[in-house]
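Figure caption, in words: inputs first, then the predicted bound structure.
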Amino acid sequence: MGFQVTLRVMGNLAFRRERVNRVDRRVPLVDHAPGMAVARRWGERMRILGLESSCDETAAAVLDADARVLANVISSQIPVHAKYGGVVPELASRNHLLAILPLMSKVLQGSHTPLSEIDAIAVTVGPGLIGSLLIGLQTAKVLAMASDLPLVGVDHVEAHVRAIFLDDPIAFGPAPARPTGPYLALAVSGGHTSLYRVETEVKRGVLHDDCRLLAHTLDDAAGEAFDKVAKLLGLPYPGGVAIDHESENGDPTAFRFPLPLRSPKKHVFSFSGLKTAARLAIEGVGGPLSDGARADLAASFQEAVVGHLVHKTFQVADAHGLTEIVVSGGVAANRRLRSVFAETARRRGLKLFLTPTVYCTDNAAMIAGLGLRRLAQGDCYRGAASRRLDAYANRAFRSGVRRG
Ligand code: ADP
Ligand code: MG
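Bound structure (adenosine-5'-diphosphate present):
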């Protein structure tokens, strides 16, 4: 059935092909970073479609040239994976396959944009589950090649870091403050916990914002640690969300966890010690956990993870003389994390930019948003060359990132 739908979409695309070139290239594309304009001329009614399928969420979004989110839809696979307590890669791929075309129809309808009025396609190419990434990538390739649209491959973590620049007045407020750069960006999710220095520079009228890796995790990512400890506590998947809620009724001082890697010289994260400490604390309680003990353990573990993230982030900001901090990624949705970051930044006099919760967890708006920047930089594939775009499971950023 999925195959038939694909053919029908391709047929429509071929039919509408000549109409795609209606873009007025005299109107400049306005960049979504404050004060920065890009030289690449595109069109005032430019529309970009973003597709994301790197893990257990199929997502699609349509943005205009100013990174205004016209529609953003997500099909979550939580019910599929919940009974296994984690993502089952094979099931994730199969469910992306079922979800992606209906989701695309939904986002086009929601943004009042017929497929014939899409001007470019951005798709996540990594890092993530290869089988899942390939569903989004192949869909994007078919669409792009059938209608001769530029195709942009986007790195998922890099997109998290730039989600702060999306334009959505409901999520960000009507006149949001934005980092001017250089800034320190924390990307904290189920697969990554890293700090980047982001430098912005305009070269020949085009904005370039390169990321340099300053710190990463030695073992688990913070979200992964949340998910594993939640499982030990008997809480449902995804564990980070469950621990966030469970902590509401718990005492964060009930159990003491060590602060990992205190030394200011060590610019790395580590969560495996906290995870072991949580397991030992759970075993120390002995027997089945009471509701009170479960809530106390959740709150104490959350406090320790947040404490480590905040401690390292501000330590690295100080070491590199950075005064603007951006926080992004699924774990950045954590309410305690948001309040401790806000309080610490206020106390230390640093500017903090928290990605709105809706754009912290996986979404395609951030993929389309970074896709716009890449497009302006000319970093895209066209026609048969699109075949060369490949997915990667685990690689440092595909481009524009240097290790510090
Ligand atoms: P990915 O890791 O695939 O990039 P996301 O960016 O959506 O996916 O991050 C998912 C991770 O974020 C999961 O580990 C999940 O437990 C965690 N997470 C989501 N919401 C919260 C929350 N409120 N508190 C803590 N962790 C959370
Ligand atoms: Mg993510």
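The CA atoms of residues 60 and 164 lie 18 Å apart.
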